[in-house]
Write a sequence for this structure.
């Protein structure tokens, strides 16, 4: 129990005040704003955070800084511990609203259009790597993407002003390239005097490696240092590429100091990247970090309706409903399922019925269910992720610290394998199938209402894939 004798709240308040001055506003809102004082014990400060994911992130990013400051303030070694306390939906909403408010009311004035009237605008060539089809208008916004969308739009309207640098992260096929290229298109159209450069991290790496033997590094550097807006897609590709990282580090510093806009995308949160220099990680996360989550059912349906309209195809509501229910991985899979049906219908001149849809999508839907992943693997990876033992997951303990991981693992087992709830229950220490069903429902609810939960789920799914690949 926290004791009255030790109360470090004043010190914590001072730490917050100090950190506020060194962190960017976005970091303050996104991370610091989510920690609150929860109590003190002898030489221990307890902080409340809204989720396990945020706890992990804050531990990795800020814990050392916090303990250093506490040491400075108190002259004692004070450990920091976290409690998890779920935020109310109003709190989540506030964070979201903040992004919208900033978008509509940027602190600094946007570029003056009157100046441009006097000096003739020198239009820059459009970047050929940007696909003009990727537009904000064609991006269907859902709860899963509203934050990333608003931030991207704010950047496009005021490059180098509101959110810099910006990192958009999320799994494959969730719209990262669509959003980062929408920023590029928007700026090229509305502010053509700005030089926009888009590359994937792979292109950046290849160009750099080629420039060395051809003695063209100065041209290479010049291209990137001339950019007013630099968009780099898929930076996870830079893992283990030390010299390219070093080069990017210098490009980053140059542009950042000149207030040029930088936007990056990554398939995972930065702290999960391996073999990327800390100083570069630190640059990537310096500004705002926004995530893209898989779309929920309603959003999937809205995306399908939108794509049908774009392709000028009519597909019955019943069929669209079937696709949205069954293709729940990402937008790319959703799109390709729809395209498959449209192609089939055009080829045979037939309207798509529900039976045709079932038959046509059968093969792709069953591939999504992965047969090479066993329940045991899921249990092991989940146990490691939550820092408990696999025996705890299978065992009888009902403490909070094992129940959530257990339910998470059951949810994943049901989601990505073909096993029935009865079989899954059996693998989880001989539990009843109704227990499995209950767990699946509970986690599904949590993922819907808590973005951090959904983030933990994505991380777990990725680790399971990686585990499989490494074996
Ligand atoms: P990522 O870069 O995250 O792997 P992409 O941006 O390439 O994903 O998206 C995959 C496909 O799905 C693209 O064709 C993209 O236009 C489409 N897409 C993704 N998200 C949306 C969305 N919210 N609305 C409309 N289309 C989307
Ligand atoms: Mg992409």
């Amino acid at each position: 129990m926290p004791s009255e004798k030790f109360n470090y709240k004043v010190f914590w308040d001072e730490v917050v005040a100090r950190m506020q001055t060194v962190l960017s506003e976005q970091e303050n809102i996104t991370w610091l704003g989510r920690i609150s004082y929860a109590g003190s014990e002898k030489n221990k400060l307890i902080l409340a955070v809204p989720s396990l994911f945020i706890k992990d992130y804050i531990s990795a990013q800020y814990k050392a800084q916090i303990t250093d400051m506490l040491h400075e303030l108190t002259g004692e070694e004070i450990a920091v511990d976290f409690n998890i306390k779920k935020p109310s939906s109003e709190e989540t909403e506030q964070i979201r609203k903040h992004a919208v408010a900033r978008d509509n009311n940027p602190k600094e004035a946007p570029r003056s259009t009157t100046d441009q009237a006097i000096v003739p605008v020198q239009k820059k060539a459009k970047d050929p790597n940007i696909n003009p089809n990727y537009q904000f208008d064609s991006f269907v916004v859902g709860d899963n993407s509203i934050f990333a969308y608003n931030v991207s739009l704010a950047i496009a309207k005021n490059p180098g002003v509101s959110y810099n640098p910006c990192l958009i992260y999320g799994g494959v096929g969730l719209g990262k390239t669509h959003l980062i290229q929408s920023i590029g298109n928007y700026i090229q159209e509305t502010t053509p005097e700005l030089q926009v450069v888009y590359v994937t991290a792979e292109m950046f790496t290849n160009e750099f490696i080629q420039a060395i033997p051809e003695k063209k590094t100065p041209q290479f550097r010049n291209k990137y240092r001339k950019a007013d807006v630099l968009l780099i897609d898929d930076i996870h590709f830079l893992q283990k590429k030390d010299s390219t990282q070093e080069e990017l580090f210098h490009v980053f510093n140059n542009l950042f100091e000149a207030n040029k806009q930088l936007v990056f995308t990554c398939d995972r949160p930065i702290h999960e990247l391996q073999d990327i220099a800390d100083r570069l990680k630190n640059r990537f996360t310096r500004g705002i970090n926004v995530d893209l989550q898989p779309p929920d059912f309603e959003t999937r349906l809205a995306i399908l309706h939108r794509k049908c309209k774009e392709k000028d195809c009519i597909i019955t509501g019943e069929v669209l409903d079937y696709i949205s229910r069954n293709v729940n991985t990402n937008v790319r899979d959703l799109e390709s399922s729809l395209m498959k049906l449209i192609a089939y219908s055009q080829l045979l001149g037939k309207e798509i019925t529900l039976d045709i849809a079932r038959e046509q999508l059968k093969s792709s839907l069953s591939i999504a269910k992965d047969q090479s992943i066993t329940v045991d693997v899921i249990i092991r990876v989940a146990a490691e992720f939550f820092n408990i033992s696999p025996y705890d997951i299978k065992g009888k303990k009902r403490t909070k610290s094992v129940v959530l991981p257990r339910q998470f693992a059951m949810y994943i087992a049901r989601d990505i394998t073909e096993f029935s709830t009865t079989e899954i229950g059996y693998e989880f220490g001989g539990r009843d199938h109704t227990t499995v069903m209950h767990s699946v429902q509970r986690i599904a609810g949590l993922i819907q209402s808590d973005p951090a939960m959904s983030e933990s789920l994505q991380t777990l799914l990725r680790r399971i894939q990686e585990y499989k690949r490494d074996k």
User: Anything to note?
Assistant: The CA atoms of residues 344 and 350 lie 8 Å apart.
